[in-house]
Amino acid sequence: xxxxxxxRISTALVLEDDSDWDVSFREQLADIATGSRYISGxxxxxxxxxxxxxxxxxxxxxxxxQDPTNERRFVMENDDSVPPPSHRVNFNxxxxxxxLGYDNSTRMVFRANNGVCLYSYALSYRGAQKVLRWQNNVxxxxxxxIGLGYxxxxxxxxxxxxxFPQVVDSHKAAGRLSRDSDIGSFDANKIREKGVTYNIARSxxxxxxxxxxxxxxxxxxxxxxxxxxPRRTRFD
Length: 236
Description:
Helix content: 10-25%
Distance between the termini: 33 Å
Number of strands: 12
Shape: globular
């Protein structure tokens, strides 16, 4: 974040080193950009395709809450990059979009007021300035994901926009489970036979060779629902 401010970088995307995303990530980001402009109310010609009125885009998380004072949602329906709930992992309960009136092949962009985990996020130059100011002045220092979640909640001038289901997550590689994290507790003798990335339909990491050699892209799970027809977007 300090580098963003020192070098006056207009926007920056931050990824954890084990992050993974769908093979359609570029197309997903195009829709998220439209959603960001809608949520932030930017419809004039912006400098950024995501608009100029956001501070943080939370793209990879394990939980993100919608701001109850801003009920706007940009909705992407009939999206074949959305995994079914059985293959989603979230902090606490995995939200059921049926309860919100959507089917489970739907993704949405919304104003967030809290979140956990930082698999990926983007900051604007102004957003990085706000993070450095806020985190320097807090009385209790939290892990950075918790701290940013609280800033989204408690700083009225910090504009956080999130997407659910998340479009970036942590890849769990084949091999010993103890490699997954240096803060978790694992049975060192357990082996994962095949890598997996929850919340992602068509893992980029697992499809790199297919794409290099011109083979068909493979989904991670055999029970992925078949989505027919084009993806649809709307403003709620």
